[in-house]
């Protein structure tokens, strides 16, 4: 493809594709892009707006109040994190509200401004993610049982709030990285900033409020021994408008050991990644700054 051609990340309309067309299109997107968008996905717009509004409201509160709201319950699945400081190493210019389920949490104790939108949205997007993952697996002729066996983890969700950044080129909203899990479903607002990498080019993900972006994560790259690649992406800062995105991470359980499946190995495609417990992969990834797809290279290096 000519470098100067404007490329647009494919959009799949879930309402007008037969199951086999859908599987086929998803397979093409996964091998050529590692990312695609879905529309007519069944998540009501009202629910999308409701969670965006709740997130905006939450981030408009003073930091102290935000923390107080979350501290009321010691088992709260919510946590808030600010990455705005620039201490030597560039940090991400964003605030994060994370939702990580735990066995003791009681969603009735969530702050009332967040409770309903979070619980409803997560449930809807969680089943959408499972449906998309099923199509990806089916397109690879993989047994659906395998998907259910290794994806028992209750999904985490992150609300990213990118405040305006006073200095252009100062840092990133989020540094280049690939996501650690299997797939990510991401909802943007109307503000630009997200870019995905294809070959040597960074391509703008132009906002589409009716779409979810589906990104292939590292665990799918590992399972398929590199046949499908996780997509590298980043968010640029902007000087005037805040940006909100919500990411749902569909991933294996932390105790699951994920390695390349035999089906994807041959003389021509020898083993590329070491099998690692997903929890260890996560801890390793979170212990250092985001840096492109360096986690996967490390898996290869540890192969020796
Ligand atoms: C992420 C991410 C992109 C965005 O949360 O992993 O890449 O648009 N977010 O906020
Ligand atoms: Ni990401």
TrEMBL record:
One family name in Pfam for this protein: 2OG-FeII_Oxy
Protein name stated in the entry: Fe2OG dioxygenase domain-containing protein
Top-rank taxon, per record: Eukaryota
TM segment ranges: none
Record domain Fe2OG dioxygenase: where: 149-252
PROSITE patterns linked to this entry: FE2OG_OXY (PS51471)
Keywords from the named record: Iron, Metal-binding, Oxidoreductase
Protein's UniProt keywords contain Glycosyltransferase: no
GO molecular function: metal ion binding; oxidoreductase activity
Gene3D superfamilies: B-lactam Antibiotic, Isopenicillin N Synthase, Chain (2.60.120.330)
Record family assignment: Belongs to the iron/ascorbate-dependent oxidoreductase family.
Coiled coil: none
């Amino acid at each position: 493809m000519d470098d100067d051609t404007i490329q647009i990340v494919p959009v799949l309309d879930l309402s007008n594709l037969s199951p086999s067309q859908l599987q086929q299109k998803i397979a093409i997107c996964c091998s050529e892009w590692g990312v695609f968008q879905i529309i007519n996905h069944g998540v009501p717009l009202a629910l999308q707006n409701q969670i965006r509004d709740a997130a905006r409201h939450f981030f408009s509160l003073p930091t102290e109040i935000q923390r107080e709201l979350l501290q009321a319950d010691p088992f709260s699945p919510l946590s808030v994190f600010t990455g705005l400081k620039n201490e030597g190493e560039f940090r991400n210019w964003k605030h994060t509200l994370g939702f990580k389920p735990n066995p003791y949490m009681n969603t009735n104790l969530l702050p009332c401004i967040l409770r309903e939108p979070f619980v409803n949205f997560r449930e809807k997007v969680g089943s959408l993610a499972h449906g998309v993952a099923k199509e990806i697996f089916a397109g690879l002729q993989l047994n659906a049982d395998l998907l259910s066996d290794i994806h028992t983890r209750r999904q985490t969700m992150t609300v990213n709030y990118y405040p305006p950044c006073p200095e252009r080129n100062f840092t990133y909203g989020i540094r280049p990285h690939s996501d650690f899990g299997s797939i990510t479903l991401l909802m943007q607002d109307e503000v630009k900033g997200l870019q995905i990498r294809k070959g040597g080019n960074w391509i703008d993900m132009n906002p589409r409020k009716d779409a979810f972006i589906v990104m292939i994560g590292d665990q799918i790259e590992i399972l398929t021994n590199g046949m499908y690649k996780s997509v590298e992406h980043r968010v640029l800062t902007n000087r005037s408008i805040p940006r909100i995105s919500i990411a749902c991470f569909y991933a294996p359980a932390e105790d699951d050991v994920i390695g390349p499946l035999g089906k994807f190995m041959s003389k021509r495609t020898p083993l590329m990644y070491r099998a690692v417990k997903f929890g260890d992969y996560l801890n390793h990834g979170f212990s250092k700054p985001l840096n492109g797809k360096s986690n996967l290279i490390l898996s290869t290096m540890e192969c020796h």
